[in-house]
Amino acid sequence: MSNESVEAYLARRAEEVNASLARLVPADDVPPATIHKAMRYSLLAGGKRLRPALVISAGEALGAKAEKLLPAACAVEMIHTYSLIHDDLPAMDDDDLRRGRPTCHKVFGEAVAILAGDALLTRAFEVLSSQEAAPDAERRLLLVRELSAAAGPVDALIGGQVVDLESEGKPVTAATLEYIHRAKTGALLRASVVMGGIVAGATAEQQVKLHTYGEKIGLAFQIADDVLDLTATAEQLGKTPGKDVAVGKATYPAVHGIEASRAMALKMISEACAAVQDLGKGAEILTALARFVVARVS
Ligand code: GRG
User: Fold this and answer.
1) pTM of the complete model beyond 0.90
2) Are 184 and 42 in contact, with CB atoms under 8 Å apart?
């Protein structure tokens, strides 16, 4: 990392992750071909691969080798992509554009898009429970527990999505808004960091530091995303901007204003960096990734 920019680091990691993802999901021509085409269409459509990079950099910070972290990193990306496919469906956010191309249901139809999301969700846990994900069964079990909890209904992905949908078009309190963001977006980012620690065999003390770091960058990430929805173009975002205001979404700028939202995100990033600063050399990339999360709005 020393002389490498965070963008170059992410691009390098994305290449490794993309190659692993391409191997972990059946090829386009494996029957039934439609489902594999749809899974690969959404999974291999680009994306920053921030969550996999967090798995890898947290694990590397504690001495694990990048190639040993790739299965866990790919499992997180599969969950993330499943959530994007389902979130874009007409019954949810009803979006036409994702990662700069038509959404999965626009290309394959709703039924196949639902199944492609389901298939990525289940494949993630198959990968995580395989020998390659971690050398011993206990660590594999911890990985499965961490990721399933982060994708679930309690203070996590599905719970956050439910409260988000229920809050559309209504005034929300700052506390509800924070809940939505921590659960819908933060939980998976935090789990990515913690999973890197699990593969690396982190001590309880190291896991507390990674957990705090993950928690703070997770919330800051969604606040930054809210701000970008107001300030960036479709080309920059790879999805439709201005959508949040259009559907009356609960966002940080709507509740706190743009400037206060930016300031909150930046403060969380400083706190995240402070939490991992004594992890030694590995803290360098975690700090750079944390700053990257808010770079586009600072
Ligand atoms: C449907 C179960 C279910 C959950 C949906 C994650 C989510 C909850 C919805 C996706 C839409 C959304 C606004 C998510 C918030 C998180 C977010 C900003 C995702 C985009 O993540 P990036 O920027 O995307 O890392 P790339 O494409 O780079 O991977």
Assistant:
1) yes
2) no
Q: What is the residue range of 168's domain?
A: 3-295
Name every protein residue with a CB atom under 6 angstroms from any ligand 1 atom. Answer: 47-48, 50, 80, 83-84, 86-87, 92, 99, 157-158, 161, 184-185, 222, 225
Q: Which helix (H) or strand (E) holds 98?
A: strand 97-98
| pLDDT per residue as tens digits for the range 51-71 | 999 999 999 999 999 999 999
pLDDT-derived band at 4 (thresholds 50, 70, 90) equals confident
Residue 121, CA distances (Å) to 86, 186, 212 in order: 11, 18, 26
**Better pLDDT: 32 or 249:** 32
Local structure of 152: helix, strand or coil: coil
Encoding tokens for residue 238? 């790879």
Q: Which secondary structure element, helix H or strand E, spans residue 87, and what is its range?
A: helix 66-87
In the three-class reduction of DSSP (H, G, I as helix; E, B as strand; rest coil), residue 247 is classed as: coil
pLDDT digits (tens, 9 = 90+) for 102-131: 999 999 999 999 999 999 999 999 999 999
Distance CA(173)–CA(250), nearest Å, equals 9
Pocket test for ligand 1, best of 92, 184, 217, 240 (most atoms within 8 A of CB): 184
The total of structural domains in the chain comes to 1
Summarised one tens digit per residue, pLDDT across range 34-47 is 999 999 999 999 99
φ/ψ of residue 142, rounded to 5: -65, -35
Mutation choice for ligand 1 from 41, 185, 188, 252, CB with most ligand atoms inside 8 A? 185
**Which CATH number covers residue 100?**
1.10.600.10
The per-residue pLDDT for 115 is 98
From residue 57, alpha-carbon distances to 4, 135, 198 in Å are: 14, 19, 12
